Amino acid sequence: MNDAQKQLEMIHEMMNKSQREFQSASFYYLFWGWLVFISALVHYLLLTQTNFTHPYAVWATMPIAGIISGIYAAKQQKSSKVKTYIDEAIGSLWLIVAFAFFGLIAMAPALGIDKVYPFLILLYGIGTATTGKITGFKLLYISGLLTFPLAVASAYMNFDNQLLVLALAIFISYIIPGHLLKKKELQMANSDA
Fold it and tell me: How many other C-beta atoms can be found within 10 angstroms of the C-beta atom of residue 171?
């Protein structure tokens, strides 16, 4: 085998490794997807069906979820021997999206919560569509793009309905792709066994 063939084989191996590691990202899409989906629906129900004075309290689970997600990420990083450019790009993207989330949430008292939620929905779409494009996972790319019109439509709705649109956007862009990634992950694990 000549040097060019060895280099091509090494590139092919690294691409396969990145793809396998990305499929293990199903944890993040399912964990955050289901957590945000349920939180949005519970917030909506508390807001519209009860006299509970603090229906937004359901979102207090997010910092705890962030810690759990961070611990999981640290364990994943320790077990990974090689970090690819794709890993770095996706990690940087989601770090920036997370900072944008924090920034929008911090601005919510000044702007009004109903002004912030369309942008949160848009950020979910930007993160998932960009990740889908980088990794070549077409469903993630398309599902992320589908959140864009939902974000725009939600800007013209009252806050109650924005919560339902958020749940729909998360279902489309996180939960469906997350379950497909999990299925691929399990198939890959079974084929390796």
Answer: 16
- Of the CA atoms within 13 Å of residue 114, those in its CB half-sphere come to 9
Q: What is the token pair recorded at 73? A: 């990420």
Whether 174 and 32 have beta carbons less than 8 Å apart is answered as yes
Domain-wise residue ranges, the chain: 21-192
Q: Any idea which residue has 């944890």 for tokens?
A: 27
pTM of this structure? 0.86
Instruction: Report pLDDT for 116.
Output: 95
- Read off the tokens for 59: 């979102």
Half-sphere exposure of 59 (CA within 13 A, CB side): 9
Q: Which residues contact 29 (CB under 8 A, 6 or more apart)?
A: 174, 175, 177, 178, 181
Both tokens of residue 123?
């950020």
Alpha-carbon distance 120 to 155, whole Å?
Answer: 11
